[in-house]
Specification:
Layout lengths: L4 E7 L2 E8 L1 E6 L2 E5 L6 E14 L2 E7 L2 E5 L3 E5 L3 E3 L5 H16 L4 H30 L5
Parallel strand pairs: 1-8
Antiparallel strand pairs: 1-2, 3-4, 3-5, 5-6, 5-7, 6-9, 7-8
Helix pairs in contact: 1-2
């Protein structure tokens, strides 16, 4: 039996995932990190994007809007404002959010408006990118036509 670690993904709405995983991947501030059991302890911020968990042959995908990743000796915790299972992402809503962010950038009246619009655009683009990867994975597994 291979080593596992506890992973908890928590959003403002509550616990999204809690379970034992063989490894997981997340988009940290300085690039993607892969975490295995017994990883060194650390704390980092997360960018909007994908969190991928692996348990045996099972792979699960989550979208987080950014947040914090904390690694402890036997547990990892992701705290995010928003965390959504990939299968629950809404492509139409992400496209609408991207268009709203683009419109907001064009109509920005201050640096703060631009910054907010850029953050919204980054989140929408991350969701759409993740949806594409999730669909590709399902196609490779023969689960999507």
């Amino acid at each position: 039996m291979s080593a596992t670690m506890q992973l908890d993904i928590v959003s403002a709405e509550g616990l999204i995932f809690s379970g034992k995983v063989d490894r997981f991947f997340a988009l940290a501030a300085n690039g993607e990190v892969g975490v295995l059991p017994h990883h060194a302890q650390f704390l980092t911020t997360l960018k909007p994007g994908e969190v991928r968990t692996v348990s045996g042959d099972e792979v699960n995908y989550f979208y987080v809007s950014g947040g914090v990743l904390e690694i402890q000796p036997s547990v990892a915790t992701i705290l995010a404002d928003t965390a959504i299972r990939a299968k629950d992402l809404d492509e139409a809503a992400a496209n609408e959010a991207m268009q709203r962010a683009k419109d907001a950038m064009e109509n920005a009246k201050s640096d703060l408006d631009v910054t907010r619009a850029q953050a919204g655009l980054a989140e929408a683009m991350a969701q759409l990118t993740m949806l594409g990867r999730f669909r590709d994975q399902l196609s490779k597994q023969g689960l999507m036509h």
